[in-house]
Design brief:
This protein is an all-alpha fold and 162 residues long. It is built from 10 helices and no strands. The chain has 2 domains: 114 residues, no CATH class; 35 residues. The chain starts with a helix and ends in an 11-residue tail after the last helix.
């Protein structure tokens, strides 16, 4: 959402300001804490946010949404998300409103994290390891050996050979 807005704003910017929009994509996407030690990056980002109000609003909303994960209870998270959605809808920025609609449609799934604080990161990692093993297993003679290798994945380590 924020990159889409950056591109749209760069196209409508004056010629004298277009250079400010270049090379800041990842600065907008990074978290505020990642920029603390990089004065040059901070300066470039703040310069962009100074000259463009809609990007500034979108950036602030992005950082506020990241704070949702610091909520300690489901009730607190529900209230925080509801307040954030109201701010996003009132902003009047089309990509932000579109993103807020998407977040609102996934509200129950997002708030489920506060009931059961687990993620799919480990499952995705295991699935990726199985895919790698499947590619390496091109010459296995039977499915039984492949299953044994999957069961032993948690003990395996990959290394580059060559």
């Amino acid at each position: 959402m924020i990159d889409e807005l950056r591109r749209k704003e760069a196209q409508t910017a004056e010629l004298t300001e277009q250079h400010v929009f270049k090379g800041v994509r990842y600065l907008l996407l990074k978290g505020q804490e990642s920029l603390e030690n990089d004065y040059n990056a901070q300066h470039r980002l703040y310069r962009l946010l100074e000259i463009n109000k809609s990007l500034n609003t979108a950036y602030i909303l992005k950082e506020e949404l990241r704070e949702l994960w610091s909520c300690t209870s489901l009730k607190e998270a529900e209230q925080y998300l509801e307040n954030w959605l109201k701010k996003a809808w009132v902003s009047g920025i089309n990509p932000v409103i579109k993103f807020a609609k998407m977040i609102a449609s996934h509200r129950s799934g997002i708030l489920n994290y506060f009931k059961h604080p687990i993620t799919t990161a480990q499952v995705e990692g295991i699935n990726n390891k199985i895919k790698v093993l499947k590619r390496m297993a091109y010459g296995f003679r039977d499915i039984y050996y492949f299953k044994l290798r999957i069961y032993a994945l948690h003990e395996s380590r990959y290394a580059l050979i060559g």
